Amino acid sequence: MFYRENGQFKTSYKADQQAFAIPQDRWAIVAIVAFAFIGVPLLVDEYMFRAILVPFLILSLAALGVNILVGYCGQITLGAGASMAVGAYAAYNFMVRIDGMPALAAILLGGLMAALAGIVFGAPSLRVRGLYLAVATLAAQFFWDWAFLRIKWFTNDSSSGSVSVPDINLLGWTINSPTDKYLFCLGVLVVFSVMAKNLLRGNMGRQWMAIRDMDVAATVIGIRPMYAKLTAFAVSSFYLGVAGALWGFVNLGSWEPAAFSIDRSLQLLFMVIIGGMGAISGSFFGAAFIVILPIFLNQMLPLIGGLFGLEVSIALVSHVEFIIFGSLIVFFLIVEPHGIARLWSTGREKLRLWPFPH
Amino acid sequence: MSGRKFGEVILDLKNISLSFGGVKALQDISFNVLEHEVRAIIGPNGAGKSSMLNVINGVYRPQQGDIILRGEHHANMDSYGAAKAGLARTFQNIALCKGMSVLDNIMTGRNLKMKANMLQQAIWFGAAQREELEHRAKVEEIIDFLEIQHIRKTPVGRLPYGLQKRVDLARALAMEPQILLLDEPMAGMNVEEKQDMCRFILDVNDQFGTTVVLIEHDMGVVMDISDRVVVLDYGKKIGDGTPDEVRANPDVISAYLGASH
Amino acid sequence: MAFFLETLLGGLMSGMLYSLVALGFVLIFKASGVFNFAQGAMVLFAALAMARFSEWIPGWMGMENLFVANLLAFTVAVAIMFVVAWLIERLALRYLVNQEGATLLMATLGIAYVLDGIGQTIFGSDIYKIDVGMPKEPVMMLESVFDGGILINKEDFIAALIAALLVISLSIFFQKTATGRALRAVADDHQAAQSIGIPLDRIWVIVWCVAGITALVAGIIWGSKLGVQFSLSTIALRALPVVILGGLTSVPGAIIGGLIIGVGEKLSEVYLGPYVGGGIEIWFAYMLALVFLLFRPQGLFGEKIIDRV
Ligand SMILES: Nc1ncnc2c1ncn2[C@@H]1O[C@H](COP(=O)(O)OP(=O)(O)OP(=O)(O)O)[C@@H](O)[C@H]1O
Ligand SMILES: [Mg+2]
Q: Is B43 in the pocket of ligand 1 (CB under 6 A)?
């Protein structure tokens, strides 16, 4: 059967309003998720989980948060790393200061704290735009960097400045093997992605996009910029906060503020640009790309260098990584501002017409 | 049109003055709008017409003057308040979300009427979905009314200019406004499209009793569909009255001849 | 009192350097509407070139004279920055004109990454010295006014002087020369400038070249003080609040903003720092700029804009 919607008539608005209106798409998504839950754990080794899949899942969640703000609401942020930090440290404090605090609750509360902080530091967006806003978010980044480094209370007076948490226990399920970690993060990501999709296809998403595309004119149709922008900051920071807490609790186990530095913020922004602004799937593409590229280069460059009898140092690999990221960002901004996600959907469009173009 | 009954004064503008730095966009302008009428604002380029609409729905704050909406004074109208008070508008430079479908753009116009909170929306099933369907039905009525069924799923950016203008109008109508402000709804259209647009505007005015304030350059159209006309020139009001009165006004004639129209 | 003055002067001097970097931002922004996040990467790139060539050239030419080596290295570094400017315009900027501010900002972030990567690939990624013979010893000043006088770092003083000189000569360049006038015309209105026959792309290359030179000077000053290393590229981040404070389009704004931030940073670190654990100078500047933004979104000298609909 061909991939297309011709001949599939929707008989109600309800059918028409589903998250994925084309049944093939719906089934594809279900199949992918099922495969991720059942197939992947059977096929993949520990290294894959630890080095690629778990970071990929958590960064996808974070990129989704950035995408909501940058891609859908059009507000730039260079402080995404700070939101992750707030989430991680807040969750840590809930964990160590409240006896019997379930880890999952601590993670969600961490997200909430990040949302609050996001609202405070997003407030300037009501007055300023574009790069001025970028500066405001940088202020958040540097402030929190400093706070978690210097204010000992946040790190529970740990002498080294680094904090650590025990394995998460979820209703008796101790999450410590790479497979457990993968499944847990996957579960969180799926739930959060579905919620993001719901928000974005509904009234909230339309308000955000109106702010992005029409700005001043949006108020004229009864959208309050304050409400729309601050909710975008809140939701985005919530996602980032949860991602940050997962990054600390699940991926790292113990961490220092440097885990959430400005470099992380830029990395997240790049994921969204490369993956695709204003597309949920873009967040996944971007995260996958950013996680896989360094590993790929690490493997390939020495091999290629070897062919020409050159020795490739680790430093060189990281510089090449810089160059590739940088060029790709410029490339995508110039050629395809909607990133890999758009390339993908254009490809699919072609498939929809195949084999009879027009 | 003469047989139609107008209501009370619904919108009264008193001594409005607005300037940007040194540019005096509006100088001491007063006029009123009656309920159910089609009120046109005309004038040469840069006369201050768009600025006038922007003052009415609170995008610009006039330095002086008073806006009286249904008897209430709004020295400081803000655009959100204006939207809540039943003012909707379209834009001279279309302000639609280019990447969203026609349907979603029009749905945006319903946002003031949608009540589901964020959590309900994130969960979708239940309140949010019910609400979405309810408003979808209303939006479909408007889509039928403006005859744009065939493009409801098309991203607005891919539509020709004339259709985009229609979508802009559809979104304004989705707000179910009492007063509709239209900024050059027919600019850049061919004769046929203009006729359609005129028909829609008059139908809205007739069927829903919506008061219409519109800016238009095409004098033929203005004379055809408006009940009363305000003429602006260089930020000053130089004429006000029925189309025939305005047409006979020597100041208006000279302003238009001077501006080589 | 003497201590306060010392702090104040120290702040003014480091502020002058911020002004220099900020000037680089303002020039590019005025001429092309691009907020150049890569300014810091340019500082690093230029400083790396300077440091490495002043090290390599004596070896290649078999001579010892430090001054000649520095002069040659400086010339080469200027040439390199011109090439960089030209490439940036050629490969990226010209395709991005008329894009939104945020898009351009992200593009320059990308450029910054590329520059960082290429710079370190070519020139290496260790810490390098720049020795242009800056005096290191401190001097006493105003001994007659204060008991014990106040201690001034000679190096800072000379650095501030150089920065001030550069700022002044650039201002003269913009006010008096034909190119400067063309630049200002472009800054006021791209389309209008183009329609009277000013070639936009050439102007942009020139602006980026000038920004490259300010980057080089800033890189030399900072590099000779702290050594040339990767952290130099974060200088742009330090100078960012300056531009916000001064308004993106104002040259005097960049200078005064730089001084305010320089002084604010030092004073806050000295008088406020001890109570909150120190290290606050980075975010203090940002907070200052942020608070300021909330009350005057257009900056000290920027013009207020009412959005059109
Ligand atoms: N936001 C603004 N900032 C500065 N000046 C403005 C602004 N909006 C309008 N103006 C100025 O006010 C004057 C009136 O402009 P306005 O847009 O109201 O004219 P108009 O009658 O709608 O003209 P047109 O027929 O071209 O649409 C013009 O001189 C314009 O430049
Ligand atoms: Mg107008």
A: yes
Our mutation pick for probing the ligand 1 site, out of B18, B51, B213, counting the most ligand atoms within 8 A of Cβ, is B51
For ligand 1, atom 3, the nearest C-alpha belongs to C306
Q: Quick check: ipTM above 0.95? A: no
pLDDT tens digit sequence for A40-71: 888 888 888 888 999 999 999 999 999 999 99
Chain A touched by C276 (CB under 8 Å): yes
Residue B56, domain member (yes or no): yes
Pairing of strands A168-170, A173-175: antiparallel
Closest-CA distance, A224 to chain B, in angstroms, reads 6
**Least Cα separation, residue C51 to chain A (angstroms):** 19
- Residue-wise burial string across A4-20, b where 16 or more C-beta atoms lie within 10 A, e elsewhere: eeeeeeeeebeeebeee
**What average pLDDT does chain B have?**
89
What end-to-end distance do the CA atoms of chain B give, in Å? Answer: 27
Q: Is residue B91 part of a domain?
A: no
How far separated are the first and last CA of chain C, in Å rounded? 54
B92 close to ligand 1 (CB < 6 Angstrom): yes
For residue B119, what are the domain limits?
A: 97-176
Whether B261 and B194 map to the same domain: the answer is yes
At residue B172, the pLDDT reads 94
The set of residues, in sequence order, having a beta carbon less than 8 Å from that of C27 and lying 6+ positions away, is C170, C207, C210, C211, C214, C251
* Out of B20, B93, B95, closest to residue C306 by CB: B20
Say how many domains are in chain B: 2
How many Å lie between the centroid of ligand 2 and the Cα of residue B4?
29
CATH number for B195 = 3.40.50.300
Do B114 and B56 lie in one domain? The reply is no
Q: pLDDT, tens digit, for every residue of B124-136?
A: 888 888 898 999 9
Rounded CA gap, A149 and A144, in Å?
A: 8
| Domain spans of chain A, in order of start | 21-257
Q: Is the CB of B44 under 6 A from ligand 1?
A: no
Asked if the C-beta of A219 comes within 8 angstroms of chain B's C-beta atoms, the answer is yes
Cα–Cα dist A160/B144, whole Å: 68
pLDDT score recorded for residue B261: 43
CATH class of this structure's domain C2-295: mainly alpha
Would you call B59 an interface residue with chain A, using a CB distance cutoff of 8 Å? yes
Give the DSSP letter of residue A256: -
Residues B210 and B258 in one domain: yes
The CA distance from C201 to C204, in Å, is 5
Rounded to an integer, what is the distance from CA A41 to the centroid of its chain?
22
Q: Do B128 and B139 share a domain, yes or no?
A: yes
Q: Taking the model in full, what pTM does it have?
A: 0.90
Chain B segment 170-229 residues within 8 A of A by beta carbon are 171-172, 175
Name the least confident of A109-118, C104-113, C273-282: C273-282
The minimum-distance atom of ligand 1 relative to the CA of B51 is: 18
Residues B139, B102, single domain; the answer is yes
Confidence check: pLDDT of C29 > 70: yes
Q: Of the residues B176, B193, B213, which one is the last residue of a structural domain?
A: B176
